[in-house]
């Protein structure tokens, strides 16, 4: 154990990998000091574990209906969170629903920021008419209300989980483009960029290898903070019946179906609502913690 | 034959509706393996001449010849293997998220030069840095060590010409002398040609065989190193600069 820590803290690393891992380790030490961020990380980790091992953890089949057991209150033996109007176990549906949520979150987190980063860095580095064209397109996307544009897209493409991801990704990339353009403008005239250009580097190498790493930390922070919004948008689409289709369990859709008997059987809508609340909170706390670790302005202190 | 020839160079910048003349009608020529200094106050246009050679500032009028050939725009890869630059501020000229190894191997990767490991290690040794620094990040190095890395990086492509933009002004006095001696040693070993900018006559006196004094974007006076030693400058401005740094030169 001590030898591993020594290897990680070695001030003169012996290889590229050791240097990078050592830097991450120092970041982790800084991250660990923030209890709220740790709580957020724990929630997100729990979500991942739930999604990965859903069949092992869930006590019941999330789709199996049993009308003799319908609308049982929370705490009924065998049904910790009660059952819904078809007698399906709500806890199992929430556990399986985490898979859908995680899938949407991951797909959006992989596509939208990458696209936004590409548009922003190219616009910022190239300048001139390229910048004008790319940023005006970004402005047009920003001018649409997010949920309305997602609704329109899903209405055209048809409901479904892939189309929901596509709709959310298409509406959430413009802020990343703006942010990375702003970051690019601050670094493009730096001496270290001039130096690598003087060594004969082309624009692709400069943008990919030298400009993007400088934008990465703010993008990662922003992505984590945006994840709560993505979950809410996905739930909103599900609530309106335009996201995941039944009988697949999805939290937004579960709230929507519980809405009909909210006054008499409050738990049907409340339990998935709590799940959305906890996971969104987890991502927000994680994002705040990451900002403390990754923010270039606080780094190196 | 002169390796670097600057003929009637003028550099203009547009700032809003105003035109700023940073360099006005300056000519100079640097011979092969010579060390040539540009001296003047801040804003005298001396750094702009270096930047114009590299393509970081426009050549508004006049021309620049390297090895008798006019420069291309953009400069191209052949130029970068011939001319390299060391920047003033070592805290700003090295990528903060790259290891020293990455910084030094990048020029090799760009030009498709192999044998990276051996070359990087050799480059560190040449500038007097221990091999254990190879995988450190710049924030783990001091200013003087960073400037050594910047010098090593400029030499990775084995250029003939090194443009030095106040390479020691961001360093404190003892480190300054070490860095200047390192540069002198490398020049002797590799037969480099230096074009060096400084606001400090003492530094230029230590480094250069000929000096051009500049003021407000114009060339004031060119002197041999000997003229500095016996204080035989012709213009008042050059004498004033000399007197400002004379005490350090004698010591």
TrEMBL record, chain A:
Membrane-spanning regions, if any? 36-58, 100-127, 147-171, 219-245, 265-287
Family in the record? Belongs to the binding-protein-dependent transport system permease family.
Q: How does the entry describe its membrane topology? A: Multi-pass membrane protein
GO terms of biological process kind: peptide transport; protein transport; transmembrane transport
Query: Where does it localize?
Result: Cell membrane
Spell out the protein name for this chain.
Answer: ABC transporter permease
InterPro entries in alphabetical order: BP-dependent_transpt_permease (IPR050366), MetI-like (IPR000515), MetI-like_sf (IPR035906), OppC_N (IPR025966)
Domain of life, per the record? Answer: Bacteria
Which residue intervals define the domain ABC transmembrane type-1 in the entry?
Answer: 98-287
* Keyword annotations: Cell membrane, Membrane, Peptide transport, Protein transport, Transmembrane, Transmembrane helix, Transport
Species of provenance: Falsigemmobacter faecalis
- Signal peptide positions are none
Q: Which Pfam family is one of this chain's hits?
A: OppC_N
A single GO cellular-component term from the record reads:
plasma membrane
From TrEMBL, chain B:
Gene3D superfamilies (alphabetical):
P-loop containing nucleotide triphosphate hydrolases (3.40.50.300)
Q: Where in the cell is it found?
A: Cell inner membrane; Membrane
Location of the ABC transporter domain: 6-241
GO CC annotations, alphabetized: plasma membrane
Instruction: Provide a Gene Ontology MF annotation, just one.
Output: ATP binding
Against InterPro entries, the record matches this protein to: AAA+_ATPase, ABC_transp_ATP-bind, ABC_transporter-like_ATP-bd, ABC_transporter-like_CS, P-loop_NTPase
Q: Which controlled-vocabulary keywords does the entry list?
A: ATP-binding, Cell inner membrane, Cell membrane, Membrane, Nucleotide-binding, Translocase, Transport
Q: How does it sit in the membrane?
A: Peripheral membrane protein
Q: Please state the Enzyme Commission number of this protein.
A: 7.4.2.10
Q: Which reaction does it catalyse?
A: glutathione(out) + ATP + H2O = glutathione(in) + ADP + phosphate + H(+)
- Which domain of life does this protein belong to? Bacteria
Q: Which Pfam families does this chain map to?
A: ABC_tran (PF00005)
For this entry, list what GO says about its biological process: transmembrane transport
The Swiss-Prot or TrEMBL record describes its family as follows: Belongs to the ABC transporter superfamily. Glutathione importer (TC 3.A.1.5.11) family.
According to the record's subunit comment, the protein's assembly and interactions are: The complex is composed of two ATP-binding proteins (GsiA), two transmembrane proteins (GsiC and GsiD) and a solute-binding protein (GsiB).
Q: What does this protein do?
A: Part of the ABC transporter complex GsiABCD involved in glutathione import. Responsible for energy coupling to the transport system.
| Official protein name in the record | Glutathione import ATP-binding protein GsiA
According to its UniProt entry, this protein's organism is Falsigemmobacter faecalis
């Amino acid at each position: 154990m001590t030898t591993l820590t020594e290897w990680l803290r070695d001030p003169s690393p012996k290889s590229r990998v050791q240097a990078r891992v050592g830097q991450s380790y120092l970041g982790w030490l800084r991250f660990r000091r923030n209890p709220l961020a740790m709580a957020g990380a724990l929630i997100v980790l729990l979500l991942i574990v739930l999604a990965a091992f859903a069949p092992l953890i869930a006590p019941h089949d999330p789709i199996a209906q049993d009308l003799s057991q319908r609308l049982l209150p929370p705490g009924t033996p065998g049904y910790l969170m009660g059952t819904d109007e078809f007698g399906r176990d709500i806890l199992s549906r929430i556990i399986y629903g985490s898979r859908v949520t995680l899938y949407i979150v991951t797909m959006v987190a992989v596509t939208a920021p990458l696209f936004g980063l590409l548009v922003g860095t190219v616009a910022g580095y190239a300048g001139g008419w390229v910048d004008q064209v790319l940023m005006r397109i970004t402005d047009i996307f920003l001018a649409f209300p997010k949920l309305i544009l997602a609704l329109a897209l899903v209405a055209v493409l048809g409901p479904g989980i892939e189309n929901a991801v596509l709709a959310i990704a298409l509406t959430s990339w413009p802020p990343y483009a703006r942010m990375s353009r702003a970051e690019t403008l601050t670094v493009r005239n730096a001496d270290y960029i001039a130096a690598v250009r003087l060594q004969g580097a082309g624009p692709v190498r400069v943008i990919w290898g030298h400009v993007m790493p400088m934008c990465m930390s703010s993008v990662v922070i922003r992505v984590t903070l945006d994840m709560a919004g993505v979950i809410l948008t996905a739930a909103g689409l599900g609530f309106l019946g335009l996201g995941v289709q039944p009988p697949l369990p999805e939290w937004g859709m579960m709230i929507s179906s519980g809405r009909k008997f909210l006054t008499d059987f409050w738990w049907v809508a409340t339990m998935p609502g709590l799940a959305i609340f906890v996971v969104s909170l987890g991502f927000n706390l994680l994002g705040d913690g990451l900002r403390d670790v990754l923010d270039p302005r606080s780094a190196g202190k | 034959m002169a390796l670097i020839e600057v003929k009637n160079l003028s550099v203009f910048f547009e700032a809003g509706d105003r035109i700023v003349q940073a360099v006005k009608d300056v000519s100079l020529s640097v011979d092969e393996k010579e060390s040539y200094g540009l001296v003047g106050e801040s804003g005298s246009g001396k750094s702009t001449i270096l930047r114009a050679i590299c393509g970081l500032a426009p050549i508004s009028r006049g021309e620049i010849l390297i090895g008798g050939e006019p420069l291309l725009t953009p400069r191209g890869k052949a130029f970068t293997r011939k001319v390299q630059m060391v920047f003033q501020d070592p805290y700003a000229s090295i990528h903060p998220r790259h290891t020293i190894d990455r910084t030094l191997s990048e020029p090799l990767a760009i030009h498709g030069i192999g044998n990276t490991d051996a070359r990087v290690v050799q480059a560190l040794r040449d500038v007097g840095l221990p091999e254990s620094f190879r995988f450190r990040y710049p924030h783990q190095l001091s200013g003087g060590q960073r400037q050594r890395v910047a010098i090593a990086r400029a030499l990775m492509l084995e250029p003939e010409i090194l443009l030095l933009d106040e390479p020691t002004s961001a360093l404190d006095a003892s480190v300054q002398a070490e860095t200047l001696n390192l540069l002198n040693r490398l020049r002797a070993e590799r037969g480099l040609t230096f074009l060096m900018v400084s606001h400090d006559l003492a530094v230029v006196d230590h480094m250069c065989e000929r000096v051009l004094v500049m003021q407000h974007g114009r060339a004031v006076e060119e002197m041999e190193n000997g003229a500095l030693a016996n204080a035989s400058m012709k213009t008042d401005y050059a004498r004033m600069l000399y007197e400002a740094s004379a005490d350090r030169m004698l010591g």
